[in-house]
Design a protein that fits this description.
Order of helices and strands: EHEHHEHEEEEHEHEHEHEEHHH
Number of helices: 11
Strand content: 15-25%
Shape: globular
Helix content: 25-40%
CATH architecture of the largest domain: 3-Layer(aba) Sandwich
CATH superfamily of the largest domain: Isopropylmalate Dehydrogenase
Structural class: alpha/beta
Distance between the termini: 27 Å
Number of domains: 3
Length: 356
């Protein structure tokens, strides 16, 4: 958790396309709660290029370093350098993606009541180390595939990617997931493709199995990732916290969001040992930029996660309850079958908080 102090400093990066249209009214809702928060706005992306000659100048990096946390919109590229720093520079290794059904949300399930799970995605390793290249460059390296039984360089023209699973990276994200499960329903699931990739995905699973003995109070199980993909649809209520390598987490957290109403509800927090940042997971929605109909729910729920991280637990619960109340009784944005603007939805959330 962030270090306790009287006033918290939050760096805000609004993002690109339609993202600022959701971030700004979300910040206004939080400001209305009267919390001791100082807001700073590092300049990134195109404005930073115009003023400083670089999309992520040192002054913006310093603003992030001096903040207790960062609230991030969504990037389509121009503000991406700051996101890279928030993830790899700050070593925020645990991407927490809740998927919880709110009554009134547009779920494709016949009976979505009670779906409440959290995917914990390892955030720094796996194929996302982005070590890729031409197969021909492996000509001096005798790397043989177990199924093809000859050097990869002899396969012909093609490309390769390196998948990296380390003990340190796996241990820290699995411990994070166990601790989260302890605070919830005490059930942790680990999933990966350990049957086909025993040296990487199998290693991830083996380390999780080792650590399970340290958490006897948490029920632990494992599934092959394709089996899990089926189960999360057919029996989503059986799952509580699920931990998995980076690529699977990236894909299946979006699938989980689809179960409960779509990416407009997809909150996210990325946690490290010394820092965390919070962002919606829905992308920048360039097709609706300027229309003020982007669903701010993911931003509001990410903000609730941020408030909890900063130590404002009661206010985080108030914000969460207000969002659920609006879904059950209030105005919804077009993606949820309503006609409310982004600002109207946030105003309804504000009014619900005021009534409590």
């Amino acid at each position: 958790m962030a270090t306790e102090k009287a006033t918290k400093r939050v760096a805000v990066i609004e993002g690109d396309d339609a993202a600022p249209e959701a971030v700004r009214p979300t910040i206004e809702v939080i400001k209305s709660m009267g919390l001791p928060i100082e807001w700073t706005y590092p300049i990134v992306g195109e404005p930073a290029k115009q003023e400083f000659g670089h999309p992520f100048p040192p002054v913006s990096r310093e603003a992030i370093d001096n903040a207790d946390t960062t609230f991030f919109g969504s990037t389509s590229g121009s503000s991406g350098g700051s996101l890279m720093y928030l993830r790899w520079g700050k070593q925020t290794y645990a991407n927490v993606r809740p998927a919880r059904y709110f009554r009134g949300a547009k779920s494709p399930l016949a009976d979505p009541e009670g779906v409440d799970l959290v995917i914990v995605r390892e955030n720094l390793e796996d194929l996302y180390v982005r070590a890729e290249g031409e197969l021909a460059s492996l000509s001096n390296v005798d790397i043989r595939g177990a199924t093809i039984r000859k050097p990869l360089a002899e396969l012909g023209e093609g490309r390769y990617a390196v998948k990296v699973i380390t003990r340190e990276g796996t241990e820290r994200v699995v411990r994070f997931a166990f601790e989260l499960a302890r605070r919830r329903r005490k059930h942790l699931t680990c999933t990966s493709k350990y049957n086909m990739l025993p040296q990487t995905d199998g290693y991830f699973r083996d380390i999780a199995l080792e650590l399970a003995s340290e958490y006897p109070d948490v029920e632990f199980d494992t599934f092959i990732v394709d089996d899990f993909a089926c189960r999360i649809i057919t029996e989503p209520r059986r799952f509580d916290v699920i931990v998995m390598p980076n690529l699977y987490g990236d894909i299946l957290s979006d699938a989980a969001a689809g179960l409960v109403g779509g990416l407009g509800l997809a909150a996210s927090g990325c946690y490290g040992d010394d820092y965390a940042y919070f962002e919606s997971a829905h992308g920048t929605a360039p097709d609706i930029a300027g229309l003020h109909i982007i669903n701010p729910t993911a931003n509001l729920l990410s903000a609730a996660m941020m408030l909890e991280y900063l130590g404002f637990r009661d206010q985080a619960k108030d914000l969460d309850r207000a969002v659920r109340h609006v879904f059950a009784t209030g105005e919804l944005t077009p993606d949820q079958g309503g006609s409310a603007s982004t600002e109207a939805f946030c105003e309804a959330v504000f009014e619900s908080i005021e009534r409590e």
